[in-house]
Amino acid sequence: MPDVSENTGRLELPEGFPEETPKKGIEVPIGEPTVMVRNLSVHYRVPTSDKSGGGRGPVGRALRSLGWSRQVTVKAVRNVTFVARSGESIGVVGHNGSGKSTLLRVIAGLETPTRGTVLASATPSFLGVNAALMPEMSGMANVRLGLLAMGKSPREVEAAIPDVVDLAGLGDSIHLPMKTYSSGMGARLRFAISASARPEILLIDEALATGDAATKERSEARMAEIRREAGTIFLVSHAAQTIEEMCTRAIWLHKGEMVLDGPAYETARAYRWWAWNISKGEHDKAEKLLADARAQLKFTHVAVHDSTSKRYIPRHRPSI
Ligand SMILES: Nc1ncnc2c1ncn2[C@@H]1O[C@H](COP(=O)(O)OP(=O)(O)OP(=O)(O)O)[C@@H](O)[C@H]1O
Hints:
Blueprint: E1 3-5, E2 33-47, H1 58-65, E3 71-85, E4 89-93, H2 100-108, E5 115-120, E6 125-126, H3 139-149, H4 154-168, H5 183-195, E7 201-205, H6 213-228, E8 232-236, H7 240-246, E9 249-254, E10 257-263, H8 264-279, H9 283-296, E11 301-303, H10 306-309, E12 313-314
Parallel strand pairs: 4-8, 4-9, 6-7, 7-8
Antiparallel strand pairs: 1-11, 2-3, 2-5, 5-12, 9-10
Helix pairs in contact: 3-4, 3-5, 4-5, 5-6, 7-8, 8-9
The structure holds adenosine-5'-triphosphate.
């Protein structure tokens, strides 16, 4: 058993936030750690068109005319640490550019962190069948293609198809070319294909926010099945309400930093309250909410002992 101590406390709702009864999600026992993220940072060096670098004078102009451009560092994820356990579905919320997708890509093993480690008990399944899907082909043909791309045999594909089609809930549209689908319909199909594998760790980026009520219901039931089979789900969404409805726990990222990590309902609502204040131009109030949230974030300690480290696979080769 790795040595971990985590934030599992209840969070206080910010003062003045309208109370609602939390939706009672599907309860599943919480088990062993499945993903451990320790001191994770991801920085990018990117060119900027900002003319202030390299000097405004003739030297700067000459350098720029030779194609030189100033580089800046974007700190997409800053020193994030947490532990995910089987049975949890963890929502990741935050403003545009707060690092949500980057965090998921590192867990998926698609991105190498600048610092820190990510360990996982199994290879995560990312909603990444997108690349294999063909817009010209029908939804049904894409189900076959997606399932084959996930490594299923033709026989397994045929056996899985009815379940995927049912979960996608597209009706007769399943026979139409995918390029005619709305973004929500495409997302439903991708979710259904990825979830059919019942992976131990499932990573979903923005796929469920656009679903209608019936789809959400079906997706939630499927997510609960995965959790019941000792799985863990990460769900990135701008729609904090989706997180409230579909997750057991949520992480709020702000400018790459973890602001809050706690029960989905409280965390997502605290984020919504902050976002609402930002949208109304109440920046001082929003700053205070951010500070209050940070004050409630408890330190998570992660140490993997040699005796158990074999169970956990690094998702990357750490650069430091
Ligand atoms: N490949 C990349 N190269 C350079 N910068 C990147 C790259 N990927 C992400 N970033 C930057 O890292 C930051 C975090 O991006 P990320 O996509 O993780 O945020 P996000 O919270 O998922 O955003 P959104 O909600 O808008 O989808 C942003 O400032 C983004 O511009």
